[in-house]
Structure formats: structure tokens, C-alpha cells
Amino acid sequence: MSSILAVFGATGKQGSSVVNYVLNDPELSRKYKIRAITRDVNSEKAKKLEEKVEVVRGDVLDRSSLGTALAGVHTVFAVTTPFATNVPLFGPKGLESEYNQAKNIADAAVEQGAQYIIFSTLPSPTKISGGKWTSVTPFDAKEKAEQYIRGLPIKSAFVSPGGFMENYVDLGFWSPKRTPDGGWILVGSASPKAEYPLVDAVGNTGNFVGAILAEPDKYEGKIFHAATALYSWEEIAAIISKATGKNVVYKQTPVEELEKMIPFGAEVFIDGFQFMEEFGYYGPDSRKLIAWAVDNARGKLTTFEEYLSTHPVQME
Ligand SMILES: NC(=O)c1ccc[n+]([C@@H]2O[C@H](COP(=O)([O-])OP(=O)(O)OC[C@H]3O[C@@H](n4cnc5c(N)ncnc54)[C@H](OP(=O)(O)O)[C@@H]3O)[C@@H](O)[C@H]2O)c1
Questions:
Q1: Contacts of 142 (CB under 8 A, 6+ apart)
Q2: For residue 160, how far is its CA from the centre of ligand 1 (angstroms)?
Q3: How far is CA 179 from CA 10, 260, 314, in A?
Q4: Ligand 1 lining (C-beta closer than 6 Å)
Q5: Residue predicted with more confidence, 1 or 129
Q6: Atom of ligand 1 at shortest distance to CA of 61?
């Protein structure tokens, strides 16, 4: 008999990737029966999901809604977000909110007798930098939640996504900008040679999570540092240039200028990139950690070049 796999964020990028990966994998689709959890079972996305999987209401901010949502579940894929309240929450309030979202899911999973939780975590810049970079709260919150989950009487494993390739398609402020002389620049606070891990979140989260679902005991306690590779900012600009046919150049930009361009959470992004340049997105072993995840992922991962060949970059 198949086990129920509850997927949070199934209408979003990471969760939808897990749903699609499991449905398309002959072994995993036999092993697991998906239950997608959403706040609104009547949304357009939820209705579409209902054509292929069970869809159940659950709100990670409301612990009491999660008992029914997780009844009879064997494995949980959990995602938290600074946007769960629909107003982006950063700083101490954001940290508390995301930590509590994860705690609500994990506590309900344990209470309902679930066997395994796979949590989408991130590294803690505060810990890795020894307290130097403390404002990257969406990262710190997830690492704090990871530690909480590790202490619970339930098996667990983790996926720690790199920067989403989707940001170059979805987020206006992330995209190349026109310069007065007709050129294009990609802006950021880090130096051109600083490196950033990229992942196709919609296309590949399932490849990492799928490996855990296929061999849960092998990967218990492990973190998949989920990225295809590290890319320097100047490489990212060069790949965008090739994909768009426009000459895009990376421009290291003063923090005061960047602050005016980022519509929300500027400090999180800017400090985050400063932290990554100094310590590495996943700390000093980033390259090694990503290589392990690539080797252990199920199937082939999408390179940034391949991603842009099917997803046009938003040019501002
Ligand atoms: N962008 C990046 O480069 C990047 C990199 C690493 C990590 N991340 C992290 O990725 C996370 C977001 O994940 P994503 O991009 O996969 O999601 P997403 O596409 O932004 O979608 C958000 C998902 O969360 C669900 N959700 C929101 N509030 C909820 C609530 N109160 N209760 C239950 N479900 C709720 C939504 O479901 P419904 O609307 O159906 O309820 C939706 O499926 C963030 O925490 C971010 O920090 C992002």
C-alpha cells in the first residue's frame, strides 16, 4: 500500500516540483500518494492540482488546521515563507513567524504519527559569520527550525535551496536594467567574481527531494545543498547576454543605490549577498556540499544556460 506524502507549498515553486516529480517517477508514484496542502482549496491553482492529487486545506499559521490536514500521513514535505501572512515579514518578527510555521507543521506531524519530515531549510548567516551578518532572517529562521525538527521524535532530512533561477524571470528588481547609453547592467552589492549557487526550483526541487523519498533511511539527517552549480555574478551576466542577445554587464553597485531599487527587504538581500561573498552561501565548503547534492540527486539537473533557453529573462 502506498504511503501518504503531504506536500506544503504544493501551489508554489518547491512544492509543485515535488508533486510533479513524484507523479512522473514510476517508483515514487507507486510508493507515495500525494496530499497537497493549501490555504484555499478553491483557488485556481488548487483546482488544477485536484485534477491529479488529493487537495486538503491547511494553514501553517493556524496550528489547529494542521491536525486534520496531516491525519494518516507518512511523510511530510514542509516549506515556510516570509510571505505567509501576505505581508512580507523580515527582521525578528519574520524570524519568529517562519520558525513558528515550521514548528506548527512539525508538531502536528509528530502528533499525527507521521514517520518522516523533509524540510526546506537554509544556512544561518548569523551562525556561519559568528554574529557579523544578522539581518538575513529568512535564512536564520529556517536553520533554527531545522534544529528544532532534528530534536523531535521523527526522522528528518533537509533540502537547502540555492538562489532560484526563477528570480530572473519573476522578480523585476532582480533583472537587468537599461542604462542611459542603451546598455544593460545586472546590479548587486557583491564583487563580480563572488559566487552564488543557482537552482531551477520548479524544475529540480523534486530531483533532490525524490532522492530522499526513494531512500529515506540512507539520507536521514542529511542536507541536500540544492543547486546545479556555483556561478559568479559575471558568469551570470554573460549567460544572460548569450540567452537574450543583449550585452549585459554585471555592475557592483553601492549599497545606498541598491536600497532604492529593492522594493522590500532590501537589508535582507544586500546583507545576504555581502555575507555570501565573505563566507559562501553555504559557508566555506559550499562547492563540496553542492557537488555531493548533485551526485546524490535523482536525475539530471538544469544548468542556468538550459533554464534560460526555455524561460525568457525579464528585462526591465
Ligand atoms: N527565491 C529564492 O531565490 C529562494 C532561495 C532559497 C529559498 N527560498 C525560500 O523559498 C520559500 C518560498 O518557497 P517557494 O518559492 O517554493 O514558494 P512560493 O512559490 O512563493 O509559494 C508559496 C507557497 O507557500 C504556501 N503558503 C503560503 N502561506 C501559507 C500558509 N499560511 N499556510 C499554508 N501554505 C502557505 C502557498 O500555498 P497556498 O497559497 O496555496 O496556500 C504556496 O504554495 C521562502 O521561504 C524563501 O525564503 C527562496
A1: 80, 98, 102, 119, 120, 121, 122
A2: 14
A3: 39, 16, 15
A4: 8-15, 38-40, 43, 46, 58-61, 79-82, 84, 122, 138, 161, 163-164, 167, 201
A5: 129
A6: 31
Q: Which domain holds residue 292?
A: 3-163+200-228+283-301
Residue 303 sits at the vertex; the CA angle it makes with 145 and 187, to the nearest 5 degrees, is: 75
Output the nine-digit C-alpha cell for 98: 517562519
pLDDT at 316 over 80: no
pLDDT digit string (tens) for 73-122? Answer: 999 999 999 988 877 788 888 899 999 999 999 999 999 999 999 999 99
Residue 1 CA, ligand 1 centroid: distance in Å: 30
pLDDT at position 92 is: 87
Residue from 61, 72, 67 nearest 35 by CA: 72
**What mean pLDDT do residues 3-31 have?**
98
CA 292 → CA 19, 207, 299, 307, distances in Å? 24, 13, 14, 21
Number of domains forming the structure of the chain: 1
Pocket test for ligand 1, best of 79, 83, 139, 144 (most atoms within 8 A of CB): 79
Interatomic CA distance for residues 28 and 31, integer angstroms: 5
Ligand 1 midpoint to CA 202 (Å): 12
> Is there a domain that residue 54 lies in?
yes
Asked whether residue 245 is assigned to any structural domain, the reply reads: no
